[in-house]
Amino acid sequence: xxxxxxxxxxxxxxxxxxxxxxxxxxxxxxxxxxxxxxxxxxxxxxxxxxxxxxxxxxxxxxxxxxxxxxxxxxxxxxxxxxxxxxxxxxxxxxxxxxxxxxxxxxxxxxxxx
Amino acid sequence: xxxxxxxxxxxxxxxxxxxxxxxxxxxxxxxxxxxxxxxxxxxxxxxxxxxxxxxxxxxxxxxxxxxxxxxxxxxxxxxxxxxxxxxxxxxxxxxxxxxxxxxxxxxxxxxx
Lengths: 113, 112
Prior knowledge:
The structure holds two protein chains of two kinds. Chain A contains no helices and eleven strands. Chain A has strands spanning 5-7, 10-13, 19-24, 31-37, 43-50, 53-56, 65-68, 75-79, 88-95, 103-104, 108-112. In chain A, the strands form two sheets. In chain A, strands 2, 4, 5, 6, 9, 10 and 11 form a seven-stranded mixed sheet that branches. In chain A, strands 1-3-8-7 form a four-stranded antiparallel sheet, with no helix packed on it. In chain B, strand 4 (30-38) and strand 5 form a beta hairpin. In chain B, strands 2, 4, 5, 9, 10 and 11 form a six-stranded mixed sheet that branches. In chain B, strands 1-3-8-7-6 form a five-stranded antiparallel sheet, with no helix packed on it. Chain B has strands spanning 5-7, 10-14, 19-24, 30-38, 45-50, 56-59, 62-67, 72-77, 86-94, 100-102, 106-111. Chain A binds chain B through residues 4, 33, 35, 41-45, 48, 55-56, 58-59, 91, 93, 98-107, and chain B through 31-32, 34, 36, 42-46, 49, 51, 89, 91, 93, 97-105.
């Protein structure tokens, strides 16, 4: 049973481009969480999704950021028109049930140049 | 906005010392409290999932307690080893959105 898979591991984008981060949860997990880690800071909650539903997006900026978790395929975190301040590590985690143990991916390190 | 705090922010101990950290969280609408261990260049890994007031969990030299009425949890490490060096995160899950709100972590360094 593969763990949570995130890709790419590293992503470089120029200002104004779009970044698409993918997260494949563990098999059987229908709950996905996205977090952002800024330099020298902890994990900041962004969005919590279940299959085809956004449950809580209170931590996600209203503009330029969107997330989805379709019926088939990975969860996608999409950042449009990236700016330098978006540079961070983005972690995805999945769990089998609400409030259950979360399993983390290796993260995607986004660098905006 | 849910406020989850951890103290101390960082800690340096000698090998063999025992240590403990604190996680403070809202005392209302509690669903669960998790502890995670995060080593440098790796992903956070779960240590404990705690759901009941008074819970005590143990894994090897590491144990944790939970007080939901007053909103705190303690993590204890007995006889610290250099391999215990990591950041220890707690995560609070409430009854509403049930998303995980992480504390800022306690960074532990165990010196040989």
